[in-house]
Amino acid sequence: MTEQTMRAVQQRTFGGPEVLKLVTVPVPSPGPNEVLVRVRGSSLNAADSGARSGGLKLMTGRKFPKGTGVDFAGEVAALGAGVTDLKVGDKVWGYLGGFPGATGTAAEYAIIKRAGVSRAPTSLDLAKASALPAVALTALQALRALSVKAGDRLLITGASGGVGSSAVQLGVALGARVTAVCSAANAGLVRSLGADQVIDYATADLAALPANFDVALDCHGSRLGQYRRLVARGGKFGSITMKGFAKIPVWLITPGPRLRPIAVKTNSADLQRLAEYVDAGKLKPVIDKEYTLEDIVAAHRALDSGHAAGKRVLRVTPG
After folding, report:
1. pLDDT computed for residue 261 by the predictor
2. From CA 161, how far away is CA 182, in angstroms rounded?
3. Is 275 helix (H, G, I), strand (E, B) or coil?
4. Pick from 35, 111, 129, 13: nearest CA to 73
5. Cis peptide before 121 (omega within 30 of 0)
6. From start to end of the chain, where are the E strands?
7. Regions of the chain short of the pLDDT cut 70
8. CB-based burial label for 186 (10 Å; 0-12, 13-18, 19+)
9. How far apart are CA 183 and CA 115, in angstroms?
């Protein structure tokens, strides 16, 4: 590696998408058990909006500058002390874990802890692969926490989003019978991912549906009480959303399944498992649109709109 500087997205105040700026900063050096990755692709996640706006400042802190982006795909550019199972040039992907410091993965290079890096799937372009780590990790860990198994009747809300579309595919791979909730516009997409049944959230009469789901996974945060009533006695209900987490105190004292909050954790073994699913044809990224680093403001405006079929991806550097 010969570069001494790189382009990276930073912000120096909380606010709307316009606070994000493309700047030139020094290329960082990896410390012990860290990997420097030349980023080919990154993607946008819902938490990126809250981190940028200040809605999550209790978790991100108030120190500036801040970077953005938490998942990536690229190549190993340098290795810190103690990292012996990777080599420079290896194609990798992963998840930063937590929130970025002065630079995130929306940058030409990123420092990643070894636990957040795994070899990338071989069957995908790296920029497209970057759409999966954060959302697919979340889906995989959620389905595991809810003990989803072959034959289960699995309900997934927000099924056309990043986590939801991954959860549909992984649920099918596990042998579950998946019912997906999304808009009518995205019903065809979700069926193509393997869902047995698709419910249009705008028109469905949820009260008329039988309470026969073994597992429900909330990936959207709306109508939680109604979806909870669709879970059979002894079934499980999990949520990855802040709105879901907010319901926990109330639902601890009311009849029905206990809501299980699920937060993603970086895990190289899980990332490797996801790469195997991709290369086996059981998991694919669902991409709404690709952007470049120069388009970061437009990408965040689209993110803030809340409407997507899959993920927004940043194609960071060629390769």
Report:
1. 86
2. 9
3. helix
4. 129
5. no
6. 5-11, 21-26, 34-43, 66-67, 71-79, 91-95, 109-113, 117-119, 153-157, 177-182, 197-200, 213-218, 231-239, 259-261, 287-291, 311-315
7. 1-2, 244-255
8. buried
9. 36
